[in-house]
Structures are given as structure tokens and as C-alpha cells.
Automatic annotation (TrEMBL):
Alphabetized UniProt keyword annotations: Amino-acid biosynthesis, Arginine biosynthesis, ATP-binding, Glutamine amidotransferase, Ligase, Nucleotide-binding, Pyrimidine biosynthesis
Binding site for L-glutamine: 49, 223, 225, 252, 255, 293, 295-296
The protein's name: Carbamoyl phosphate synthase small chain
Self-association and partners: Composed of two chains; the small (or glutamine) chain promotes the hydrolysis of glutamine to ammonia, which is used by the large (or ammonia) chain to synthesize carbamoyl phosphate. Tetramer of heterodimers (alpha,beta)4.
Active site location: 251 (nucleophile), 335, 337
Molecular function as annotated in GO: ATP binding; carbamoyl-phosphate synthase (glutamine-hydrolyzing) activity
Length: 356
């Protein structure tokens, strides 16, 4: 017989959802967001872009395929997107205590307990998601039975990029050309996608002045939080733009490149977090299904005259990428490297490599 404790999610507007604990038994707080993907919780939990957030999964069951082993391949984690869980907690309608997958070496519950991350199941995640869609992402806290109450925590008030970025320069892969990767919270599959294409990747911290080292192209990674907090990176990108060398950005990288160009960003009501976001390449009828995880977006109306949108979201018309009209600078708001999610747009890595 399992000793399952009660747990509650308390939203900042006073709404309370009652459920049961299946992870680490402790109180926690953060920004409550939802993801409509059907699979991929190991990748999502270890995605640094979820730093400071409580993740709600709309797919009704969690944990049914367990957790893969932690091992490295090509200098990075083989199955995860970073070296630890970044989400503050995870919420599901139902949790499968009995998992089944040929790669699994432990359950999701065991993993959460190892990394001291709470999890709740047994609440109506459909009602919770509709509430967040109507009122926007909001602050929340999880209180587990027998644990102390805690205050709300707003992760968007601090520089989360500085919190998740690497602390020193790292080199991954080898090849005749060098790509500087600005780590704003990079997912490991971005590194895999670059090194598989035969380039040497120099991974640098978010505030590192990479303009002082030789390189053939600049890559700006994804990352969590508010892009307005990352002025040091924006200043370095502006200096890099003066060299004319190729630049590519993903997610946060799209927002930082836009800010370096002179555009502005804004917070979306509830963001895009899923595997099924349709985007259209601007000026064409080509559409792609993409994996996304972001709460901020570029304001298309503020792009300078020598820049233009590269992709547009087909659901709400928001920006999904930008490009310079004459120079080799472009970026995508979605995740062409997926992990997890569709790989329909991985060709963007090839486009960048061909520019070097």
C-alpha cells in the first residue's frame, strides 16, 4: 500500500486545485504554464527554458514510460536536455505508477524524488488549462500535506539566463569551422545538431565577450525568462553584427537578435508550449509543425526596415522568426532541434552551416 499524501495547487487569484503527490514532498512556487504535448516529459523537465516554472501537462497521463538512463554521448547528455531538472514542479491529471519502456531505468516519481521536484496528479488539468488560457499564465504554489506554506515566486523578475548559463568556456565536437554558441540556457540537442554537421562548437556563458575570439559563425541559444534582462548579450550581438559573419538564433536567441537589431519584445498571455504549433514561412505557402516553449515574442511592428519576419504563427499571427534582408542573419522562435517534438524544421541548421 502506497502512502500517498494530499497536495494542492494554489493560484495567485485564489483558485485552488486539490490532488495527490507523486514526487518530492515539499512546497514550491513559480509561474504556472501549460504544455499540450503528448510525450516528452524527460526532455521538457530538463529544458532550461522551464526554469522557475510549474509545468502543467494537458495529456491526461504521465509517467507511463518511465525515465531513460542518464548517460553521455558526444560530450552531452544522450537523452536529456541538460544535467538536471529545471521546472519547479510538474502537474498531471493521472500518474502511472507502473511504467513500461525498454529504455527506462526508473520511474518518473523516483526521478522527481532524486532531484527534489514535487509532482501532483489527480486534478482536473483541463479545467486548469482553460483557466490559464482565460486569465493568462499566473503565479502559483504547490503545498504538500504536512509541509509549510510558502510565498508566491515570480521568476520573471530575475535574470534566469544568468542562472542557467554555463560558467565557463566549453568546446564540443571538431571540424574546420568554428561556431560560437552563446549559452542562454541551451538545450543539449542544439549542440548535437551542430556537432553532427561537422563544426567545432565553442560554448560560452551568456555574458562572455565572444567577439574577442576567432569564429566563423554565431549561434544564440534558447533560454528562460524575460529577454529584457539580458542586455549584456544584446550588446555583444550588436558587435558581432558589425563583422557580417553569419548569425542564427533559436527561441530566446530570436528575441535577443531582434533586440540587437532594434526591435522590442512583449510577454504573451500564456505562451506557446507544445509539439503542434503551425508556422508559415513568410512570403510562401509552406507551413511546418513545430515544437515550442516560450512566453515572450518579438513585436513585428518594431522591426527596422532592413529586417523582416521569417516565420509567422498560424494560430495567433505572432512572430516565429526574423531575418536580415541582405546579411546572413536569421532566427527562429520555435525549436528546429525538437527534443522532444517534430523535426520538420531541422533543415534550418543546414541553412546556417551553409552560410559559414
Amino acid at each position: 500500500m502506497r502512502d500517498i499524501k494530499k497536495a494542492s495547487l494554489v493560484l495567485e487569484d485564489g483558485t485552488i486545485f486539490h490532488g495527490k503527490s507523486f514526487g518530492y514532498e515539499s512546497s514550491t512556487a513559480g509561474e504556472v504554464v501549460f504544455n499540450t504535448a503528448m510525450t516528452g516529459y524527460p526532455e521538457s523537465l530538463t529544458d532550461p527554458s522551464y526554469e522557475g516554472q510549474i509545468l502543467v501537462t494537458t495529456f491526461p497521463i504521465l509517467g507511463n514510460y518511465g525515465v531513460p538512463p542518464r548517460r553521455e554521448k558526444d560530450d552531452v547528455s544522450e537523452y536529456y536536455e541538460s544535467d538536471h531538472i529545471h521546472a519547479k514542479a510538474i502537474i498531471a491529471q493521472d500518474y502511472s505508477w507502473d511504467h513500461s519502456h525498454w529504455q527506462a531505468d526508473r520511474s518518473l516519481s523516483e526521478w522527481l524524488r532524486e532531484e527534489k521536484i514535487p509532482g501532483i496528479y489527480g486534478i482536473d488539468t483541463r479545467a486548469l488549462t482553460k483557466h490559464l488560457r482565460d486569465h493568462g499564465s499566473m503565479l502559483g504554489k504547490i503545498i504538500v500535506e504536512g509541509c509549510d506554506d510558502i510565498p508566491f515566486y515570480n521568476p520573471n523578475l530575475e535574470n534566469l539566463v544568468a542562472k542557467v548559463s554555463c560558467r565557463g568556456v566549453e568546446v564540443h565536437g571538431e571540424g574546420p569551422r568554428t561556431v560560437v554558441l552563446v549559452d542562454c540556457g541551451v538545450k543539449h540537442n542544439i549542440i548535437r545538431c551542430l556537432t553532427r554537421r561537422g563544426v567545432r562548437v565553442v560554448r560560452v556563458p551568456w555574458d562572455y565577450d565572444f567577439t574577442s575570439i576567432p569564429y566563423d559563425g554565431l549561434f544564440i541559444s534558447n533560454g528562460p525568462g524575460n529577454p529584457d534582462m539580458v542586455d549584456v548579450t544584446v550588446d555583444n550581438i550588436r558587435k558581432a553584427m558589425e563583422t557580417g559573419k553569419p548569425i542564427c538564433g533559436i527561441c530566446m536567441g530570436n528575441q535577443l537578435l531582434a533586440r540587437a537589431a532594434g526591435a522590442s519584445t512583449y510577454k504573451l498571455p500564456y505562451g506557446h508550449r507544445s509539439h503542434n504549433q503551425p508556422v508559415r514561412r513568410a512570403g510562401t505557402d509552406k507551413c511546418y509543425i513545430t515544437s515550442q516553449n516560450h512566453g515572450f515574442a518579438v513585436d513585428n511592428t518594431t522591426l527596422p526596415s532592413d529586417w523582416e519576419p521569417l516565420f509567422i504563427n498560424m494560430n495567433d499571427g505572432t512572430n516565429e522568426g526574423i531575418r536580415h534582408k541582405s546579411k546572413p542573419f536569421f532566427s527562429a522562435q520555435f525549436h528546429p532541434e525538437a527534443s522532444s517534438g517534430p523535426k520538420d524544421t531541422e533543415f534550418l541548421f543546414d541553412e546556417f552551416i551553409n552560410m559559414l
